[in-house]
Design goal:
Elements lengths: L5 E2 L5 E2 L25 E13 L5 E15 L6 H12 L4 E4 L6 E2 L10 E3 L10 E7 L7 E7 L6 E3 L15 E4 L1 E5 L2 E5 L10
Amino acid sequence: MPTLPVPIRGNNAYFGFAKQSSGGTAVAPNVFPRWMDGSSIEISYKEEKIREGDGTRRLSQAIKNMQMAKIKLVFLPRPVELGFFETAAMGIGSDTVTAAAVSGRTVLTSAAAGATTVILDSTTGLTGSGTATLAVGIGTTNEEVVTVTTPATSGTTFTLTASAVTKFLHQGAVNTTSATTISVGVNTIVVALATNIIVGL
């Protein structure tokens, strides 16, 4: 949760954020984004006014019964800040990264554009029954993502699902890997082309 902004000088202030281990338990902020023009803080409250007297009733007491702050934050996040806010926006649980089941594989025999199968150098990581998402031709201009049926239909030959075909030509020995899955509490993201995630610039 955001902390109350603390003035530094004039109209200057800073914003501090932190991730709570349990809801409603305050923790010390450790992320301080550098705010830009367009950022604003509006603090408003509601009160109940009590008046006393007979002929001329005078304000005797004001009881504040609610206060809230509306914060608009405009900033260019650094990598750690970007990761922090992406996590806050996408999920409430701990982040879990499931590494690619297939890495370091290569295409054994060239696959022409329009092929319905892909032949790899090994079936390691692709022996279960179901489907697998593969990035074929990583690092080449013909890089693409295909979904194949597992296990292999014959030897190390994998058939694309739903009568799909490859879009590009893939020469033998090009790199192939499967998807990395990132669970962020509420949502699950599939990163089809990488085992590394780069956040920010």
